[in-house]
Amino acid sequence: RLFRRWRTFIPSLPKMLLNKILKRWGLTLVVVFVTWTMLLYISSNYNINGTVHLSVKYNGAFEEDISAPDKTYVERQASVRDSATAASGSTVQKLNSAVDAEVKQMSKKPPKFNGPTFLIIMCRGRRSGREGTMRQIMQAGVMFKSALVFSTKRIRFFISTDSREIRTELEKVVKTWPYSYRSKLVLKFVSVWKPTVVSRMWTLGVECVMQRLFVPNMVPHEDAVIYADTDMLFMRNPEDLWDEFSNFNSTQVAAMGPCLYYYGTAKNSKTPFYGTSGVNAGLILMNLTRMKTSFPEGGFLEANMKAFEKYSEDIALADQDIINIVFAQYPEMMLELGCEWNYRPWQCKLGKNMCPKTSVEGVSLIHGNTKAFVNGKETKMQAMFDAWKAYELGSPLVDLYHNITSLLSKATVQGYKWECAKLENVDTILSQRMKSYLIDNNLLS
User: Fold this and answer.
1) Which pairing describes strands 254-258 and 224-228: parallel, antiparallel, or unpaired?
2) Which family does it belong to (predicted)?
């Protein structure tokens, strides 16, 4: 009889104990669990200095092959790049040690990609709200669209980001496109690369703007990439821009478009600059191999750091000033692109076309910097962006052209003194390249 009672009692003992614990300590346990979860989340996304890391700890980069309709291809490449400070040695030596150690850990060099390779930077940083982040995502999606329309090859975009949200939202945009276009696009996400030992340099300008100086370290296996701001529209095959690398001589490591204003004229311009008007940092063709192996002063990053240390009090345009300082010292290492490859609002303001070549051939790439695509001031530039944004991939390209010409004709000056709308032939400048493309392909009579 005693045995039967114990056989009934023992299985119910854990349940009885659990009920007593929950009645007495249930609320406390819930509070402890919630607190622990929040601390774990915060610690996984911020370092001790409060710098935002990726929301999910990627073990480096992953690649989404958009040609695979139902799955994501993930390629492990490198650990998250947040270089640690060493106990001794110069700043440059510390960075070199961190980079060398990281590269040595990579057991296998990934296969070469046969097509144009771009890199864009999209950071959330410490922004409050989502307006800036969503604008970046919208602009990047429209830029991808414009590149895919003209390209005959697959195009790869490295995306340097500190935000899981940016990756997720970009995937949503791209996965709605027809397979024939998705099959030409490869997105590869990499972490931001930050030399923490030079925090003052890191904080210059808007979120992550200094990342442009770290591209050779960000994608160490690549031989060449084209850095591009997200606020750009291709009006010509991006393969033509990639072909500009073939124009490099044996010493040139980078190619950029001329600034055509500011340097040498603006009162804030106090630093040395390349050429007669400086270069704009919104688009940079980079021979990464030469930057890392044959650039003076120990490498491209090292030269940039020395320029910052020397002119830090006079720098007004963050990384663009630093790049101009470096190539003012080494002009033989820069190839100046045609101004049609980086056509910005300042090139058509004041009623004058600062890039005369575009009056005949049209622009190859439109750069809507200073929020020209969205701020309502540059009505002509915004008309171009709105037309591309509304265009559905797979629709007749001639429909896009007709929408462009229609929106350009409706764009009117709204009381702003320096708008491109005041330039007499601005509609032709902005749309001529597409018209020529359509005629060459028998899509427009």
Assistant:
1) unpaired
2) Belongs to the glycosyltransferase 8 family.
